[in-house]
Predict the 3D structure of the following.
Amino acid sequence: MADADEDLVLRSQNGDTSAFEMLVRNHQQMIHALTFRMTGSVADADDLAQETFIRAYGQIGSYNGTARFSTWLYSIGVHACLNWRRNEARRYRAHANCAEEMLAARPDAGIPPAESEMARQAQAALMKLPARQRAAVVLTIYDGLNHAEAAKVLRCSETTVSWRVFAAKRKLKRWLTAAGEKP
Amino acid sequence: MNDFELESKLKTIRVPARTEDYWENFPARVRAKLRPDRGDWMPRNHSSPWLAWAGGLAYACLLLSLSVWCERHPRQNPFYTLFQNERAVSKELAQLPGHLRVFMQDEHGMHRLVADQE
């Protein structure tokens, strides 16, 4: 655990909410990136980021410092996303809206339209994956964790992670190739 | 499409940028929600009064039914049977001092084993 986090965690464990607020400040961007990649929706990502920190505060008494605080927090975030239940209507709405939300929230300063289109296709394909496969992709491809580290975060075996990554990549390649071939 | 091409495509997804105000206010918003949830990692006891009331009520009902049943079936009452047995044992002991070895109770009543010698 980083020294700065160590002190803040100890104070948070003693009920100091201002210390916890500092921890939120230190890790908020990492958690928002995770929740956005897992949900494809800015609004849901915000809600889930908030829920992640609230859960973390609720469980902070159980944090014993064996892993880095950021890893522990990240694990809570991943599981909050995995438990995020969406009905079908919400899922379709997320598909339809994700590209628009991305463009609205970020005016794409200098991003070529072709890249925007590619990003939209990639996001849509990512959202079509089952949540656990999506989590494996987010951890290994975006965050650069190896399969053993991802297995710890996902609380499953390394073999399971490897299989999920393999299955997810196979589907993504198929969908993105098909999307690229469309006129 | 190979793995490298796939990863390059996936990495074109950018996390939407938020305003400085958003990042500034987010920690305070989280903190404001923590206060009512402080009890999350402390023992919750708001359900115990209900449990206590339910347990008490169930116990009272049990006692009431037991007393009604005892009143209606005095001969099947285990306490009554025990009392009767004790009286029978005392009587037998007085009549055959030093000869009684075993008392048994079954569905036909009390039985005794009497020795010839003391």
